[in-house]
Amino acid sequence: MPVMIRTIQTAVPPTILYQDQARDVFAAQPGLTRLGQRLIATSFNSSAIATRRTAMPEMSLDATVEDPVFFDAETRQLFSPSTKVRNEVFAREAGPMFIESARKALEATPDLTAADVTHVITVSCTGFYNPGPDYQIVRALGLNPSTKRSHFGFMGCYAAFPAVRAAKSFCEAEPDAVVLVVCAELCSLHVRSSNDPDTIMGSALFADGAAAALVTARPAGPEAQPGLQLDFFETVLTPVGEDAMAWNIGDEGFEMVLGSYVPHIIDDHIVGALDPLLANDPKFEGTYAEIEHWGIHPGGRAILDRVEKRLGLREDQLAPARRVLHDYGNMSSATVLFVLKDILEGAGSEPDAGGQRVCSMAFGPGLTVETALMTVVPAGPAAAAEDDAREAAAPVAAGPTR
Fold first, then answer.
1. In this structure, is residue 131 part of a structural domain?
2. What is the CATH number of the domain that holds 353?
3. What is the pTM of this model?
4. What secondary structure does DSSP assign to 204-272, as a single string?
5. Catalytic residue list
6. How many other CB atoms sit within 10 Å of the CB of residue 150?
7. Mean pLDDT of 376-382
8. Within a domain: 401
9. Which of 65, 180, 198, 260 gets the highest tally of CB atoms within 10 A of its CB?
10. pLDDT of residue 391
11. 174 inside domain
12. How many CB atoms lie within 10 A of CB 383?
């Protein structure tokens, strides 16, 4: 049987940051130069983000906190606590988000129970603690104590793909395996006031969220929802960009390097990054727009604009990524799973969506481009029959077709 993502479920903290309010707060901080204030206005206004979420309730303008650590809503002053203080918040707040999204994933697959889960893979680049979220998920969901656990840490925005790829490998090695892949990021922990363009861009884009994918090769039950068959994965390092996107640990939080040239690098090298992926599918001989769905990590509006134009995609093919960016911002590794969830929910309403292809991409430090090719599997009993048909007709790897 082919390996599938049976469900993708998400969790976000309740505190909402409104982009226009956040812009005004950052622009009013002491020590900003006139150039810094202009960069803040430009970065926030051009972000295509309306709302983001944060795991820190005190970041809300409506918060009343006696001894604020990150933000004083009364004076509207941003503070800059140490990395230790920020990581202590991560250790306290990340666990519930990991657990909530993982629990939702299990609840969404009624033919699978906690006893069926054989592996847990957790992903995050915004904090560390141990026993970690992989341990917490096993305990909180009542999984078998012998559940195999892995953690993918500090990889950045593309990390969901290495995690899902590992899950696919586990299922291919153990056909009865059921793998929970859970990403949770608290990016807002690391925001700070600054005149530095990279720091300003990070403050305008990044947010908090979690997403869980349940991966297995077990046959789907009659109540199964639409899923994604995992066909092929590839990784490409662009020839340039090592200094354009990075993630470092500083004394006052983690420090994002997100150069303004990143969209240009992606524009120049996206076709080359897709070639190895699409070479796996000898059926692909047309234009990129002929692939029905595109699950692009919305690293920012400029990245989506470049991808759409360079690949000749239709506006509707980038709509899921733009919706996630608009409503949630960039949640690092979890974000592309939000986009794929949006695609699945849309495909679930289409009676003939089975067999449609999904091409997905995420970008991160390096500059690393992770790509995946998937196939929509319909809901219910039709899924098993379609799985068998696709397995019998599975394409073998072929040379490049472009």
1. no
2. 3.40.47.10
3. 0.93
4. HHB-EEEEEEEEE-SPPPTTPPPEEEEEEEEEEE-SS-TTTEEEEEETTEEEEEE-TTHHHHHHHHHHH
5. 157
6. 16
7. 75
8. no
9. 180
10. 52
11. no
12. 23
